[in-house]
Amino acid sequence: MRKIKYLLLLFLVVVLSINTVACSKGNTATQTGNEENTNKADTEGDKFPLTITDFLGKEITIEKEPKRIVSLAPSVTELIFAVGAGDRVVGVTEYDTYPEEVKDLPKVGGFKGPNIELITAQEPDIVFASTLSGKEEMETLEKMGIPVVVIEAKSIDNIYESIEMLGKITNKEEKAQTIVNEMKSKIQEISNKVKDRPKIKVFHLIDINGNWTAGSGTFIHELINLAGGQNIAEDTEGWVQYSIEELVSKNPDAIVMSSYAGDVETIKNMEGYKETNAVKNNNIYVVSNDDIISRATNRIVLGLEEIAKFLHPEVFN
């Protein structure tokens, strides 16, 4: 009988010991989990308030991570969606067309400029703007305590900066860096393919009415160079009207035109144009989507690839 009591007592001691160890491990695991969550929260909290310098050189402090965003620049809207913060956008302009989701978002600006009442009705935590958004309207928003950040890229390097800035502000830095790295890799890949090919003299036609083209300091100029071409209007700056006489004198080997620039057959028969090698050799190319060569977004690499294929199809076959 004593032996049985001893065995029962020993069994209870073992069970209690196991329970004690299990509880101890459970508490340790819970403590560790709580510490990890606390550390994660502390890390995220450390990012805000966040002070950044926008593209106008203006220093802006953003007190908390923005959850409601108004974008007054189609290019910026695209990039917000690209970095994974598109679900926070609560207002865009009538010019926003990409991605598809923007078509259903409230329109807070258009041809007449930004509408302050419509913007404030969305209760934004932040407004992203461009230099075309209206200086007075943006100052009004700032006086109301709404941070206004101007993002306006004028080069591919500026696009990288835009993406990285948006990544910081929306707390999507990892995704933003991935996009930048992918862009750089694709641009390098295309540049490597055409670097040993002869430079093709290119004229980019934006609009036949006035013979508008793109000079130095534009995305299109940069894309033409990267694609293995030489912009015949490189001696001009920005968006300019180019004389027919100069066009004939420079004699481009290829004409790359916007879809809305004019009718191809009309251009082929125009005085001046019909004297160029581009027309004589039927080297007139229409860009499939004007946004991929004119908007400061990660889709600019699609425009680069398209132009490169126009100029040097042999290296892409």
How would you summarize this macromolecular structure in one to three sentences?
It contains twelve helices and 14 strands. The chain is of the alpha/beta class. The protein has two domains: 50-171, Nitrogenase molybdenum iron protein domain (Rossmann fold, 3-Layer(aba) Sandwich), CATH 3.40.50.1980; 195-315, Rossmann fold (3-Layer(aba) Sandwich).
Decide which structural class fits the backbone. alpha/beta
Query: What is the H level of CATH, i.e. the homologous superfamily of the largest domain?
Result: Nitrogenase molybdenum iron protein domain
Query: What is the total domain count?
Result: 2
Strand content: 15-25%
Contiguous runs where pLDDT drops below 50 for at least 5 residues: 1-44
Largest sheet: 6 strands, mixed
Question: Care to describe what's here?
Answer:
The protein has 317 residues and is an alpha/beta fold. The chain has 12 helices and 14 strands. It folds into 2 domains: 50-171, Nitrogenase molybdenum iron protein domain (Rossmann fold), CATH 3.40.50.1980; 195-315, Rossmann fold (3-Layer(aba) Sandwich), CATH 3.40.50.1980. Helix content is 46%, strand content 16%. A 6-stranded mixed sheet has the order 6-5-4-3-7-8, with helices on both faces. A 4-stranded parallel sheet has the order 11-9-13-14. A two-stranded antiparallel sheet has the order 1-2. The protein starts with a helix and ends in a 6-residue tail after the last helix.
